[in-house]
């Protein structure tokens, strides 16, 4: 019928007319049958503007592994527990393809910064940030910095500024678009001087630039200095493949005193050991491990009940507040 | 409370000053909001704490009483505020609050309408989400509660982003001045279906509404009323399960496990003592987690809907 050019509605009517069992169904059942056939033969597509919640839901349904099985309610809890607000400086470890970074940036609204940091040398991909369709203003608030960048004492600040601008020029002259960022971290404490670093910039692939919106630029010297002086106002970690304690002990001193943090993990045990270690060293208080539970309902006259399908696990979150007692560990 | 005020931003350089609101943390389930006053003292079962000792210290510090007991002083956040505020009504907790803010798609600059204000738990988080360029207009029919809420918002420093009105939204609907201006609306009313026609007028195209109701009958009536002009109607339930942890030392003889298990642990301990002289041997103990015995079974149903776009 489709080949003959019949519309979806006509096909559905024909199916109903030819169905042997349709007459015998209850009215509820008939409605359900019709909806099912309509979905298949007369699909309606709605275009919506992208937002953190719809992007998260879409990925969780289609490709949850890409976002570390981060469910919508878990993501929303991370944003609340991480006290994300305009003018904050939020430190994030984002191994969810950029979903967390994007969600934080959305709530910052272009003010403050979301600093995307990585454990080790290679930065994590942030492709999902592009899907948010952010304005230039918001894009500028998304920056990258390695842990060493933020913690090192930069005595050669002037030299580093020159290097920064040299590297930026290199990047702007290349117009490649690559899907993953692999810009090498420039070690500020390097003593080898300018020549080495410019060589590196020549060899390293360009950071991804989609149209005119540059996301994930390296944090400027000024910003790094600001973070060192004031600390980050909060931290959110989504690193489902790593053991949290191994890097949280290094990142926590970067947070301001009394700054909240939230760490997500797919598994409970690593968070339990992390919580214990934090407690023993008195690095944080108000520690809590939470597991969100979400259930959707079908609400129809005489047919109201929870949906038959449900997500079994949205992961676990360790949340807490940094104390000021370890003042000596501030670098 | 919000970092939009630079003097209130959480930072290494910020110290407790006279007039600041601090959260006194005794235990994770025992906290209190206190306004710092040069000549005041804070009393609890650990002793008396002089406020003057607090002034000049950074937030997050441990402070001591005259008897040697201690507490921590934390900077207020909407999450901590929800746990310490005085309950004039039943309040929303972090699980519902965070989900609502995400689904209402609130970002800085949004205009939100809320009714009822209640104790202002959700309102404080809404203010954080829309500050500094947005605004929350919240309404409660109870004049006394509205006044208490206004006081709270002053104390927490969010009053420039929140306007409290006394109004019966079920009977009168939202004020006409907001027609077509609201990005999102939140309803926590006994009969939300009475407010839905007014909500429809207030919302921008594709604006989002959320209704929180403890009872399923309320949800059913609300959804019926929503179907006329709203689409994408979805109802959820969200709960938070918390876990407690404990360290289990391999050398302790507790547990009702079989005898063979006990002797294996004993052997391990012997081996370890011979091997190393370290005090805290990681192999000797594991950290275990289990769900808390006390759990919340239900708070309410959250129903979300988008205003239909007229083509």
Automatic annotation (TrEMBL), chain A:
<protein>
    <submittedName>
        <fullName>tRNA (Adenine(58)-N(1))-methyltransferase non-catalytic subunit TRM6</fullName>
    </submittedName>
</protein>
TrEMBL record, chain B:
<comment type="similarity">
    <text>Belongs to the class I-like SAM-binding methyltransferase superfamily. TRM61 family.</text>
</comment>
<keyword id="KW-0819">tRNA processing</keyword>
<dbReference type="GO" id="GO:0160107">
    <property type="term" value="F:tRNA (adenine(58)-N1)-methyltransferase activity"/>
</dbReference>
<keyword id="KW-0489">Methyltransferase</keyword>
<dbReference type="InterPro" id="IPR029063">
    <property type="entry name" value="SAM-dependent_MTases_sf"/>
</dbReference>
<feature type="domain" description="tRNA (adenine(58)-N(1))-methyltransferase catalytic subunit TRM61 C-terminal">
    <location>
        <begin position="69"/>
        <end position="306"/>
    </location>
</feature>
<protein>
    <recommendedName>
        <fullName>tRNA (adenine(58)-N(1))-methyltransferase</fullName>
        <ecNumber>2.1.1.220</ecNumber>
    </recommendedName>
</protein>
<feature type="binding site">
    <location>
        <position position="168"/>
    </location>
    <ligand>
        <name>S-adenosyl-L-methionine</name>
    </ligand>
</feature>
<feature type="binding site">
    <location>
        <position position="188"/>
    </location>
    <ligand>
        <name>S-adenosyl-L-methionine</name>
    </ligand>
</feature>
<dbReference type="Pfam" id="PF08704">
    <property type="entry name" value="GCD14"/>
</dbReference>
<feature type="binding site">
    <location>
        <begin position="119"/>
        <end position="122"/>
    </location>
    <ligand>
        <name>S-adenosyl-L-methionine</name>
    </ligand>
</feature>
<dbReference type="InterPro" id="IPR014816">
    <property type="entry name" value="tRNA_MeTrfase_Gcd14"/>
</dbReference>
<keyword id="KW-0808">Transferase</keyword>
<dbReference type="GO" id="GO:0030488">
    <property type="term" value="P:tRNA methylation"/>
</dbReference>
<keyword id="KW-0949">S-adenosyl-L-methionine</keyword>
<dbReference type="GO" id="GO:0005634">
    <property type="term" value="C:nucleus"/>
</dbReference>
<dbReference type="InterPro" id="IPR049470">
    <property type="entry name" value="TRM61_C"/>
</dbReference>
<dbReference type="GO" id="GO:0031515">
    <property type="term" value="C:tRNA (m1A) methyltransferase complex"/>
</dbReference>
<keyword id="KW-0539">Nucleus</keyword>
<feature type="binding site">
    <location>
        <position position="140"/>
    </location>
    <ligand>
        <name>S-adenosyl-L-methionine</name>
    </ligand>
</feature>
């Amino acid at each position: 019928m489709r080949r003959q050019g019949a519309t979806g509605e006509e096909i559905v009517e024909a199916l109903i007319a030819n169905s042997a069992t349709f007459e015998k169904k209850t009215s509820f059942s008939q409605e359900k049958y019709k909806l099912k056939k309509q979905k298949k033969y007369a699909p309606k597509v709605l275009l919506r503007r992208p937002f953190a919640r719809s992007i998260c839901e879409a990925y969780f349904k289609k490709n949850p592994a890409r976002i570390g099985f981060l469910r919508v309610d878990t993501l929303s809890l991370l944003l609340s527990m991480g006290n994300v607000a305009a003018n904050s400086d939020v430190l994030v470890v984002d191994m969810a393809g950029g979903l967390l970074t994007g969600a934080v940036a959305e709530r910052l609204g272009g003010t403050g910064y979301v600093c995307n940091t990585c454990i080790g040398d290679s930065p994590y991909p942030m492709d999902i940030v592009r899907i948010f369709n952010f304005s230039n203003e918001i894009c500028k608030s998304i920056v990258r910095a390695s842990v060493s960048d933020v913690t090192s004492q930069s005595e050669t600040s002037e030299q580093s500024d020159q290097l920064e601008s040299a590297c930026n020029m290199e990047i702007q002259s290349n117009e490649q678009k690559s899907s993953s960022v692999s810009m090498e971290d420039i070690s500020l404490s390097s003593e080898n001087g300018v020549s080495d670093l410019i060589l590196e910039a020549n060899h390293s692939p360009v950071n991804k630039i989609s149209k005119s919106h540059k996301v994930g630029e390296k944090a400027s010297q000024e910003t790094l200095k600001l973070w060192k002086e004031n600390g980050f106002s909060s931290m959110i970690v989504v690193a489902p493949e790593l053991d949290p304690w191994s890097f949280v002990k290094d990142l926590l001193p970067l947070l301001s005193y009394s700054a909240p943090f939230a760490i997500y993990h797919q598994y409970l045990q690593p968070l339990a050991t992390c919580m214990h270690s934090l407690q023993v060293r008195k690095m944080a208080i108000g520690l809590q491990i939470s597991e969100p539970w979400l259930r959707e309902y079908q609400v129809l006259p005489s047919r109201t009940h929870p949906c038959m399908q449900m997500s079994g696990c949205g992961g676990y979150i360790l949340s807490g507040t940094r104390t000021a007692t370890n003042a000596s560990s501030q670098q | 409370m919000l970092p939009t005020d630079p003097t209130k931003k959480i930072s290494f350089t910020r110290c407790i000053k006279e007039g600041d609101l601090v959260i006194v943390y005794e235990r994770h389930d025992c906290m209190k909001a206190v306004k710092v006053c040069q000549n005041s003292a804070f009393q609890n079962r650990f002793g008396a704490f002089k406020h003057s000792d607090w002034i000049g210290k950074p937030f997050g510090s441990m402070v001591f009483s005259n008897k040697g007991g201690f507490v921590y002083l934390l900077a207020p956040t909407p999450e901590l505020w929800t746990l310490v505020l005085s309950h004039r009504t039943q309040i929303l907790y972090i699980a519902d609050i965070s989900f609502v803010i995400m689904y209402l798609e609130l970002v800085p600059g949004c205009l939100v309408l809320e009714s009822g204000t209640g104790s202002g738990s959700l309102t404080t988080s809404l203010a954080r989400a829309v500050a500094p360029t947005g605004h929350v207009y919240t309404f409660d029919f109870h004049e006394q509660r509205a006044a208490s809420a206004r006081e709270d918002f002053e104390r927490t420093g969010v009053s420039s982003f929140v306007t409290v009105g006394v109004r019966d939204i079920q009977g009168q609907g939202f004020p006409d001045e907001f027609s077509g201006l609201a990005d999102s609306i939140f309803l926590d009313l006994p009969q939300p279906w009475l407010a839905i026609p007014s909500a429809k007028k207030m919302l921008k195209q594709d604006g989002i509404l959320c209704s929180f109701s403890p009872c399923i009958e309320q949800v059913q009536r609300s959804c019926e009323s929503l179907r006329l002009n709203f689409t994408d109607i979805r109802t959820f339930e969200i709960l938070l399960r918390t876990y407690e942890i404990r360290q289990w030392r391999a050398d302790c003889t507790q547990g009702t496990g079989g005898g063979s298990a006990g002797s294996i642990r004993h052997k391990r301990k012997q081996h370890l003592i011979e091997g190393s002289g370290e005090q805290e041997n990681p192999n000797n103990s594991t950290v275990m987690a289990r769900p808390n015995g006390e759990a919340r079974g239900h708070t309410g149903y959250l129903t979300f809907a988008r205003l239909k776009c007229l083509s």
